[in-house]
Amino acid sequence: MTMKVTLSLNGKLVSADVEPWTLLVQLIRDHFGLTGTHVGCDTSQCGACVVHVNGQSVKSCSMLAVQAEGMEVKTIESLTSTKVLHPMQQAFKDHHGLQCGFCTPGIIMSALNLVAINPDPSETEIREWLEGNLCRCTGYHNIVKAISAGAKTMKVS
Amino acid sequence: MSEKAEEGLFLAGGMTLIPTLKLRLTSPSALIDLSDLADLKGIRQEQNMLIIGAMTNHTQVAAAPEIRNMLPALSDLAESIGDPQVRNRGTIGGSISNADPAADYPAAVLGLGATVQTNSRSIDADSFFTGLFETSLKRNELVIEVCFPIPKRAAYIKFPNPASRYAVVGVMVAEHEDGIRVAVTGAGPNVFRVHEMEQALEANFSPEVIEDISVSVDSLNEDVHASAEYRAHLIKVLAKRVIAAII
Ligand SMILES: Cc1cc2nc3c(=O)[nH]c(=O)nc-3n(C[C@H](O)[C@H](O)[C@H](O)COP(=O)(O)OP(=O)(O)OC[C@H]3O[C@@H](n4cnc5c(N)ncnc54)[C@H](O)[C@@H]3O)c2cc1C
Ligand code: FES
Ligand code: FES
Known about the structure:
Oligomer: heterodimer
Low-confidence stretches of chain B: 1-5
Mean pLDDT of chain A: 97
Strand content of chain A: 15-25%
Structural class of chain A: alpha+beta
Shape of chain A: globular
Structural class of chain B: alpha+beta
Strand order of the largest sheet of chain B: 3-4-9-5-6
Bound molecules: flavin-adenine dinucleotide, FE2/S2 (inorganic) cluster
CATH architecture of chain B: 2-Layer Sandwich
Low-confidence stretches of chain A: none
CATH topology of the largest domain in chain A: Ubiquitin-like (UB roll)
Number of strands of chain B: 13
Order of helices and strands of chain B: EHEEEHHHHHHEEHEEEEEEEHH
Largest sheet of chain B: 5 strands, antiparallel
């Protein structure tokens, strides 16, 4: 038995017929081909799958697709549709906030949730906020710098 | 778990249930999503009580101004759970129904002497948590809301597991009109009160009075994170810190 789910995905109204046990991340990646959202652990630990649901960051590997019915879902692909990067993406580039880049989409979506509620976060606040995101490469220093710089650019622009 | 295989389960934030389903630890015949039930939502004040709907998530509890004003210990506790994404989905109803031995909310429910309102009855905190992942909830009994009486003063401190932020040990101390409650989570199969500490604190509310009180290691958890002896030590250290923080 499949169920129909209708949601706003990166600003577009979309529908899909899915098995009820389909995860939100599977809907995003497999049904809609948006592969910027990654699956790292699949056990709600690593944050590679973070997307926004109604403006709040959530781990899309731990939410069912049908739970997103009627909701507004935003993925990393929503940040820019041109070659001009979003200020937070640009800050990650400028500050070497990524190495392999696997964790980056989730971290950026998580960081944007932080900046939405706290436009000028301190280093401590950024580090505490990143509790739900793991990075195996960078050692976090440059990620923290990038988020701080990205937040500042976003405040100005 | 296998006896549950043929029945439905409530789905709240899914932060515990969805990983559990992935591990095939339970296989319900159906999931009942609680997210649209209006009765399970919202925070309200009634006389000297704060009443929190079962589907209120940890971010909402941490951010609610009325909780910050009247019961800051609960705001702090909610803010200390997991990570922002877990707090954006996980709910108070799901946390207490799941009764993880290392979860934070059970310490609030027991330490603050809350009442759990279900679709059929009120359950007082002292009879709600009955064992490891066990509560007195019956099959298909739904937690609607949790009613917290406002204490004179209270605080919660935990020693978090550095990876998950679950409590290796967490201690809630609250002074109510009718006495003091000390609740400990993380240390045993389920949250428990330390009556000996409560009595000593009634006589003299200061960290020193519990110096000579120790909790027996026989009933405490032992795992890769901490030995029973270490947990017993943490209970005393954290209890003293909580009391010092409240005074
Ligand atoms: C990475 C990570 C870190 C975490 N860290 C912490 C931490 O530091 N401290 C902490 O306390 N917790 C922590 N948690 C757990 C988290 O707080 C969850 O919110 C909680 O365990 C379950 O709540 P839920 O709303 O997600 O419930 P669900 O997972 O949806 O449900 C859990 C169980 O409760 C039942 N249930 C749910 N709602 C009701 C209801 N209203 N009535 C009756 N039964 C119901 C369900 O059927 C299910 O059996 C963590 C979780 C993760 C994934
Ligand atoms: S893949 Fe979702 S948290 Fe790791
Ligand atoms: S850059 Fe490789 S995991 Fe973060």
